[in-house]
Amino acid sequence: MCLGIPGRIEEILNNEPLERSARVSFGGISKPINLAYVPEARVGDYVIVHVGFAISRVREEEARRIFRYLEEIGELDDLS
């Protein structure tokens, strides 16, 4: 099953269009993520991430709901 995980953009690392990347926090774990597919995303935004790429923006309330569900089913352990 393919699963997109919500994360919060903490810092833009590279702003070149095809190489645009950011440090994204997933409930306390931060990873570098490619933002080429979401050029409108800014620091503080929540994005859905799949295999290292942010694929869409999402509202904070929706990101928190998804995190609660992932925690319930034990899927957050795979992030560390």
Write the layout of secondary structure elements.
Blueprint: E1 5-14, E2 21-26, E3 29-34, E4 46-50, E5 53-58, H1 60-72
Antiparallel strand pairs: 1-2, 1-4, 2-3, 4-5
Give a short summary of the structure:
It contains 1 helix and 5 strands, in the order E-E-E-E-E-H. The protein has one helix at residues 60-72, and strands at residues 5-14, 21-26, 29-34, 46-50, 53-58.
- Percentage of residues in helical conformation: 10-25%
SS strand fraction: 35-45%
Quote the CATH topology.
SH3 type barrels
How far apart are the first and last residues' alpha carbons, in Å? 19 Å
Number of helices in the DSSP assignment: 1
Number of strand segments: 5
**Number of structural units classed as domains:** 1
Round the mean pLDDT to the nearest integer and report it.
89
Q: What order do the helices and strands follow?
A: EEEEEH
What structural class results from the helix and strand content?
A: alpha+beta
Radius of gyration: 12 Å
Largest sheet strand order: 3-2-1-4-5
User: What is the CATH class name?
Assistant: Mainly Beta
Sheet with most strands: 5 strands, antiparallel
Overall shape: it is elongated
Task: Describe the 3D structure.
By secondary structure, the protein is of the alpha+beta class. The protein has one domain: SH3 type barrels. The chain is 16% helix and 41% strand. It contains one helix and five strands. The protein has one helix spanning 60-72, and strands at 5-14, 21-26, 29-34, 46-50, 53-58. It has a five-stranded antiparallel beta sheet, with helices on one face. The radius of gyration is 12 Å and the shape is elongated. 21% of the residues are buried. The mean pLDDT is 89.
